[in-house]
Amino acid sequence: MPPSRIAFGTDGWRGRMADDYTYASVRRCAQGFARYLLETEGDARPVVVGYDKRFASEHFAAAAAETLAGSGLRVLLTDGPTPTPAISYSVRHHQASGAVNITASHNPPEDNGFKVRNRFGGAIDPAGLKRIEALIPPDDDPAGALPIARGISQGRIELFDAAPAYIEQLKRLVDLEPLRDAPLTLVVDAMWGNGGGWFPRLLGGGRLKIIEIHNTRNPSFPEMSRPEPIPPNVNAGLQATLGAGADGLLITDGDADRLGAGDEHGQFIDQLRMFGLLAYHLLEHLGRRGPIVKTLSTTSMLEKLGRIYDVPVHETGVGFKFVAPKMLEVDALIGGEESGGYAFRGHVPERDGILAGLFLLDMMVRTRLRPSALVEELFAKVGAHFYDRIDSPLPAGERPAREQRVRQAAPATIGGLRVTGLNDLDGYKFGLEDGGWLLVRFSGTEPIVRVYCETTAQDRVQPILQDGLRILGLR
Question: How confident is residue 36, by pLDDT bands cut at 50, 70 and 90?
Answer without folding.
Answer: very high
